[in-house]
Specification:
This protein has 489 residues and is α/β, with parallel strands linked by helices. It is built from ten helices and 19 strands.
Length: 489
């Protein structure tokens, strides 16, 4: 898949970041093996978390070749894997030649299958296990896997959109450079087209899942000359004396008989056809189709891209009275020395001393002397204070930060309200205190805004403080799920 990734990178450029998952050492084990599906789940979850950490949405488009498509099905099922990958993380899946309904090379044909793969890939396959070959047996819809293989590959979670791409090779018979006729194989040499397109009937009961999943099918077709196929089959020592009799081979193929002539044709095709199983991930036609699907997926993701929710709170109505739903209590101290609130988005939102009064987000009532001050944006509670004298008009703060934030992990943080805070040895200082944890939202000394609003999902820097101003780990980028702004009604 490294070559596949390189080709997709050439066609997609900076639209995506590409990662590959390698389970080559366990390539002959079954997809549900503990070294494959659970590891794939961990890998995808880690990639998603890293994306969110830098302000991304954490969503992944998976392109899976062959048994990788089955491994993904297991990796996204909570019954099979403890930390399964949710549909919200992988909303789009593209499978290339995935044997949803198995392969004729499975079961008793597996010994020759390994030989074909070794030849086609130019290298020996690992000898970790042959359980994959036992479980890969071709089957009808609803038919269970052989004993020891476990449950059928589970359905993808609801909401996942699947595009399955099959390779379909045709062998051309020629004489003196003129094509006599063509032999359609309806296979990429390893996986028949009905199996590569067989997801809707490949799970329990054999009936398409009723979970709202969307499935589309595409085909990469190619032709290859019989002479090349015949030469490759001879190299594989699969050529029987009657390979030249196409009629016999087609009869066996149509009857699903995996005879020596059928094996010879399919093995030769696997070794040399452009759309063969081992080449489908790099064949330009398949790459173009995969690119089209990814671009469609990117457009869909853009439309549904998550963004930080912004909640605007006005503690008073246009008449200057407490807004509906708010309760009011009298403050227990006197306030004075007021100016524009650092978190007020609009005029006449002020802050007053002392900081212990919690009067840093205050709306001026209609009499210009009464204040209604909020403590936490997620609580509909106001404190009433009275100024020594009526206040004149107060201009809005330029570029205020939000009053409060809820981070992606649910942590609630309130903007700093004066007082003495712990510190740290580097240039970072506290900007928001967070409930119940020794974590703060930090800002570089000298900067004015702690929240990065340059992308749809806002981010902040979260780290530690301590009383000794110690050297502490650098802050981490964390996404903001909800931001609360104090506004003028």
């Amino acid at each position: 898949m490294t070559d596949t990734a390189d080709k997709l990178d050439d066609q997609l450029g900076e639209q995506v970041s590409l990662f590959t998952f390698d389970y080559g050492h366990w390539a002959l084990s079954w997809a549900a093996d503990e070294h494959i599906a659970p590891c794939l789940a961990d890998y995808l979850n880690s990639v998603s978390a890293a994306h969110r950490k830098v302000g991304g949405d954490g969503r992944i488009i998976v392109v899976a070749h062959s048994m990788g498509g089955l491994a993904l099905r297991y990796a996204m099922d909570g019954k099979q894997v403890k930390k399964a990958v949710p549909a919200s993380t992988v909303p789009y899946v593209i499978t290339l030649a995935t044997p949803h309904l198995g392969s004729p090379w499975g079961g008793t044909g597996f010994a020759n299958f390994k030989t074909v793969l070794d030849h086609a890939l130019g290298r020996a396959q690992p000898a970790s296990s042959q359980a994959g070959g036992d479980c890969l047996v071709l089957r009808d819809r609803g038919e269970t896997l052989p004993g020891g293989c476990g449950d059928l590959p589970p359905w993808l979670p609801a909401g996942v959109q699947l595009t399955q791409i099959a390779g379909d090779a045709t062998v051309d018979r020629s004489l003196f450079g003129f094509k006599l006729y063509s032999i359609p194989l309806f296979s990429d040499g390893i996986v028949p087209v009905p199996s590569a397109h067989g997801y809707p009937t490949s799970g329990p009961t054999g009936e398409p899942p009723l979970n709202g999943a969307k499935t589309a099918s595409r085909t990469d077709r190619c032709t290859v000359d019989f002479g090349l196929v015949n030469a490759a089959a001879r190299d594989l020592r699969l050529v029987p004396a009657w390979m030249a009799i196409d009629y016999l081979m087609l009869q066996d193929l149509q009857k699903d008989e995996f005879s020596l002539p059928v094996q010879a044709y399919l093995g030769g095709v696997t070794a040399v056809a452009p759309c063969a199983h081992t080449r489908l991930g790099t064949d330009q036609s398949a790459i173009n189709q995969t690119t089209e699907v990814i671009k469609e997926a990117l457009a869909g993701l853009k439309k549904s891209a998550p963004q930080t929710k912004v909640v605007k709170i006005a503690g008073v109505d246009k008449a200057g009275e407490p807004a509906a739903g708010f309760t009011v209590e009298n403050g227990d101290s006197e306030v004075d020395g007021c100016d524009s609130s650092i978190a007020g988005e609009g005029p006449d939102i002020i802050r007053c001393s002392p900081t212990a009064a919690g009067a840093d987000i205050c709306w001026i009532a209609s009499d210009r002397q009464t204040l209604y001050c909020g403590l936490f944006p997620w609580e509909k509670k106001l404190l009433r204070y009275t100024l020594p004298a009526p206040s004149g008009p107060v201009a809005a703060t330029k570029g205020p930060d939000p009053w409060g934030l809820v981070l992606a992990d649910g942590l609630r943080c309130r903007i700093r309200n004066g007082g003495s805070w712990p510190g740290r040895a580097d240039e970072w200082v506290g900007a928001y205190s967070c409930e119940g944890e020794q974590r703060w939202i930090l800002i570089r000394a000298g900067m004015t805004n702690a929240v990065d609003r340059s992308k749809p999902v806002w981010t902040v820097q979260v780290g530690q403080l301590d009383a000794e101003n110690s050297a502490l780990p650098p802050p981490q980028t964390v996404s903001v799920s909800t931001a609360y702004l104090a506004v003028t009604p």
